[in-house]
Amino acid sequence: MNSRPLRLGTRRSKLAMAQSGQVAERVREVTGRPVELVEITTYGDTSREHLAQIGGTGVFVSALRDALLSGEIDFAVHSLKDLPTAQPEELAVAAIPAREDPRDALVARDGLTFEQLLTGSAAPARIGTGSPRRMAQLNGWARSLGLEVETVPIRGNVDTRIGYVRSGELDGVVLAAAGLSRIGRIGEATELIDVDAVLPAPGQGALAVECVAGRPVDGVSGVDLASRLAELDDPLTRAAVTAERSLLAALEAGCSAPVGALADFPADGQVVTEMRLRGVVGTTDGKTLVQLSTTGPVPASHDDAMALGRELASEMLAKGAAGLMGERAL
């Protein structure tokens, strides 16, 4: 039997390497095969521009997909929120493992929460984020409290972003809680932001394991890598992120547009019977937000999850969502 290591393509960042390493361990368990990480540099990693300027859709993904198609790697791990909503026919998202905490996390000076930062000084608190979605909702949250916040565009890895707070340049930064958890730094968060205040990016906290559709392992017919990777799939996570990404696609919005979405499963005891989908679109100054929700049965199929997302997007568009998005996907 061929025991060549399976080659997992990953971005080079500490976070990407950590989450890919976690997936690699699970793939070793289900396949009995060694897995090696292949580091790929993406355009999003080398560009100095803010994601909204370079058109965030796919900038962390294209190089990994090229490596898949060329046979340089066997499968890739993406942060699902970075994945364009249009899926190439030749590639398959073979697995979406169980999701980490989808919330945003605040890392602030002096152990403060968002509201404490805003009320603790005469000048508006300076909070860094590279996300128009976060800017819109943080500004909206501040306005709802009758307070002000200054959102500051930043880029960089976790160390760089938290460094702005440690140096005193910023009062706080907002990051994905899942990313902090995966690199063992969730303890540095001073607040896990309630989704009632700030909805996460569609797919936030989830990973996508992608491979070439139908490609056999080691050229052996009938040994399909996608079917083995599918053992890592979590059906409820897949249903939730499918609905969120369907909403994003129906809004014709890109990954860096100011759109938040979260599907979850309000449980009656231990029985999960319904899925709730919430969405928000807003101007980055927070002056105008369109936020709606819908609830339906747990989707029985991919098409059902897609339909729930399209339904909510249609309602949001009817409320004026289209005029609030800076970037529209082409």
TrEMBL record:
Chain ranges of the Porphobilinogen deaminase C-terminal domain: 240-317
Enzymatic reactions: 4 porphobilinogen + H2O = hydroxymethylbilane + 4 NH4(+)
Enzyme Commission number(s) of this protein: 2.5.1.61
Misc. remarks from the entry: The porphobilinogen subunits are added to the dipyrromethane group.
Transmembrane intervals: none
SUPFAM superfamilies referenced in this protein's UniProt entry, alphabetically: Periplasmic binding protein-like II, Porphobilinogen deaminase (hydroxymethylbilane synthase), C-terminal domain
Taxonomy, superkingdom: Bacteria
PANTHER family found in the cross-reference section: PORPHOBILINOGEN DEAMINASE (PTHR11557:SF0)
Protein name as catalogued: Porphobilinogen deaminase
Family as reported in the entry's similarity comment: Belongs to the HMBS family.
Pfam families for the chain: Porphobil_deam, Porphobil_deamC
GO molecular function, one term: hydroxymethylbilane synthase activity
Biological role stated in the UniProt entry: Tetrapolymerization of the monopyrrole PBG into the hydroxymethylbilane pre-uroporphyrinogen in several discrete steps.
Assembly with partners or alone: Monomer.
Keyword Nucleus in record: no
PROSITE patterns reported for this sequence: PORPHOBILINOGEN_DEAM (PS00533)
Cofactor(s) essential for the protein: dipyrromethane
Organism of provenance: Streptomyces meridianus
